[in-house]
């Protein structure tokens, strides 16, 4: 396990000193909020934070942690609050690079969890793997994003999300 963590740290150090010529190497979406459009009764909201490394002027990779608040997603009362969570590896390709205004397309792959227990003690929901195609636009310190969360497990809802995030770093060096 120590070798794995050490390898990850070495990769991060190498990546932060990589060939990004015009943009700062690290970006962080400190706080992002999303409106989730589900196919179930009622919609939901989400909060997320994402750390990215610009490998070069066109490609960024990162790690995103997200919390979804579904409320009454399940048809029967639950003991929990209807909160789902996900953690995903992300990759973005910037198709437009005009100083601090950048358009991108990307994908994320990760693990989703929406496990709940009903009032009768039955386990519902579940966890599993999924992917998230996304498109967005970054201007100065704001990032607007639209994405579709698709999971391979029936217990977790698939949804379209529209979000806005405040981010630090990653700005033009010029």
Q: What would you note in describing this structure?
A:
The protein is mainly beta and 174 residues long. The protein has a single domain (2-169), classed as Porin. 9% of the residues lie in helices and 59% in strands. It contains one helix and ten strands, in the order αββββββββββ. The protein has an eight-stranded antiparallel barrel with strand order 1-2-3-4-5-8-9-10. A two-stranded antiparallel sheet has the order 6-7. The longest helix is centred in the N-terminal third of the chain and has 15 residues, at 2-16. It is globular, with a radius of gyration of 18 Å. The mean pLDDT is 80.
Helix/strand order, N-terminal first: HEEEEEEEEEE
* Low-confidence runs: none
From the N-terminal CA to the C-terminal CA, the straight-line distance is 40 Å
Structural class: mainly beta
- Rg of Cα set: 18 Å
Task: State the assembly state of the protein chains.
Answer: single chain
CATH topology name: Porin
Number of domains: 1
Mean residue pLDDT: 80
In percent terms, what proportion of residues is strand? over 45%
CATH class: Mainly Beta
Shape: globular
Helical element count?
Answer: 1
Largest sheet properties: 8 strands, antiparallel, barrel
- The second-level CATH architecture is Beta Barrel
Q: How many β-strand runs?
A: 10
- Strand neighbour order, sheet with most strands: 1-2-3-4-5-8-9-10
């Amino acid at each position: 396990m120590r070798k794995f963590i050490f390898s990850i740290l070495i990769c991060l150090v190498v990546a932060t000193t990589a060939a990004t010529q015009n943009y700062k190497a690290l970006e962080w979406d400190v706080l992002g909020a999303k409106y989730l459009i589900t196919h179930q009764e009622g919609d939901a909201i989400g909060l997320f934070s994402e750390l990215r490394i610009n490998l070069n002027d066109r490609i960024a990779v990162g790690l995103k942690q997200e919390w979804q608040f579904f409320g009454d997603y399940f048809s029967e009362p639950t003991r929990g609050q209807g909160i789902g969570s996900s953690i995903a590896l992300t990759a973005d390709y910037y198709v437009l690079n005009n100083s601090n205004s950048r358009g991108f397309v990307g994908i994320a792959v990760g693990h989703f969890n929406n496990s709940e227990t009903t009032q009768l003690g039955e386990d519902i929901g579940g966890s599993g793997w999924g992917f998230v195609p996304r498109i967005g636009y970054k201007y100065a310190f704001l990032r607007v994003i639209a994405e579709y969360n698709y999971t391979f497990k029936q217990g977790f809802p698939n949804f379209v999300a529209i979000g806005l995030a405040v981010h630090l770093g990653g700005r033009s060096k010029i």
